[in-house]
Amino acid sequence: MEILFLLEQVVNGLVLGGYYLLLALGLSLIFSVGGIVNLAHGAFYALGAYVSLEVIKHAGFTGSIFITPALVGLLGILFERYLLRRFYTADPILSLLVTFGLALVAEQALRMAWGSAPLASTMPPEFKGQLIMGDMMFSKYRLFILGVVTVVMVGIWLLLHKTSFGRVVRAGVQKPDMVAVLGIKLQPYMTAIVMLGVATAALGGVLFGPITIVHPAMGTEIMTVAFVVVVIGGLGSFWGVVLAALLVGVVRGITIHFQPAAGEASMYVLMFLVLMFRPRGLLGERIERFE
């Protein structure tokens, strides 16, 4: 029974890792192409959770899964066009300060729009309850989240590795000068990457709203974890971020099983150990800065 319970914690840890992945993957993509660590990324996650509350009233939960990321992704286009674009060739500290300030402004804006009191999102009735597999019991909704995250992860990988769009993006990450010589402007691709990253963050807000408390500071809270995941995986590494997110989720799940008080600290210990032996992260590579 102890082994079965531990296996359940591993599955729950994978779900938690998927939660982190939706945030960290977009954060890593934006850094890869633009060289900017977007500290306002968590604000789009929180915005996604709040927007989904309104969309669910009119289109239901299933509709919100598609509509909310699309709406927040459009906002990401404006974010890239009027803010990030100014800092691609500037001192990186400037983009850190600006995006950090934007995160604070966004948090207060959410308070003004929806109030400071925590709100509850609605879980779809069809995913309520437990799924029993032999002697093990799993939440239907958590398994649903794991399935959606897997689809998103595979979809982004296919976009980056099996399309002409992805080939240009990967070439721009590794050899931006060569791409420029070929007459290809990376700017539109950067806009699309920011939109994609912001949309995945918003999707995280939609999916995890029903099992977490929706409140204005939720983006700030998750941003720390997302940054830890990106550092462990390696800035700019797709599979590094995937591996790190799942690893952090499982380590936290198992740690909480044995020592609940140490669950939060486990990811920081993991980051320390990884950086001690591989400062670039698990699968990190040297990346030329976007010009």
Class per helix and strand makeup: mainly alpha
Strand order of the largest sheet: 1-2
Name the helicity range: over 70%
Query: Count the strands?
Result: 2
What about the largest sheet? 2 strands, antiparallel
The structural domain count equals 1
Low-confidence stretches: 287-291
Listing every helix as H and every strand as E from the N terminus to the C terminus, the arrangement reads: HHHEEHHHHHHH
Spatial extent as radius of gyration: 19 Å
Distance separating the two termini? 56 Å
CATH topology: ABC transporter involved in vitamin B12 uptake, BtuC
Proportion in β-strands: under 5%
CATH first level: Mainly Alpha
Quick one: overall form? globular
* Rounded mean pLDDT score: 84
CATH architecture annotation: Orthogonal Bundle
Number of helices: 10
Short note summarizing the structure:
Helix content is 73%, strand content 3%. With 291 residues, it is mainly α.
Labels describing this entry:
291 residues; mainly alpha; ABC transporter involved in vitamin B12 uptake, BtuC; two-stranded antiparallel sheet; 73% helix; disordered C terminus
